[in-house]
Amino acid sequence: MLDDVDRRLLRYLQGDPALAVAELAGRAGIGAGACWRRLERLREAGIVLGQEAVIDWAAMGYSVEVSLRVTLDKTQSRAFDEFIAGARTIPEVLEIQTFLGRVDVRLSVIARDMVDYQRLYRERILTLPHIADIEALMHIARIKSDESLPL
Question: pLDDT digit string (tens) for 63-79?
Fold first, then answer.
């Protein structure tokens, strides 16, 4: 189980994933060697999954984000697997989520503008297999987007 030092390390690491081990150790009040060992233990336990660069896709020229709620034709035994495999090949699909209920899958899709989205929708999204119904929700504003845990 996690102790207070582990929680401090995780809190500081969430706040600034680029912190050097020595600086992270100093903030957490432990030695660099102990910090490194604890981080390794947290990685091995699957608690720390990795460190990544978060790129602002709007700054890269993508101004449209759409959430697509998809209902699949569940009469096909491989509908989920085949749909998801196809959706994974589309670079503009940032996130794929599956659900229980009327909606089976949600895709988070970005495009440079509405013309680009329309092309992407017609040429790539609608050609995905086993779509029974699809609903598009245009994102207006992101009010909160935080994957940090309350540690």
Answer: 999 999 999 998 999 99
Q: Write the pLDDT tens digit of every residue in 99-134.
A: 998 999 999 999 999 999 999 999 999 999 999 999
CA distance 30 to 24: 9
**Is 110 strand, coil or helix?**
strand
Instruction: Centre a 10 Å sphere on the Cβ of residue 145 and count the other Cβ atoms it contains.
Output: 6
How many Å apart are CA 61 and CA 26, to the nearest integer?
A: 39
Residues 116 and 64: beta-carbon distance below 8 Å: yes
For residue 105, which amino acid is it? V
Residue 137 one-letter amino acid: L
Mean pLDDT of 5-29: 94
* Structural domains present in the chain: 4-44 (1.10.10.10), 64-138 (3.30.70.920)
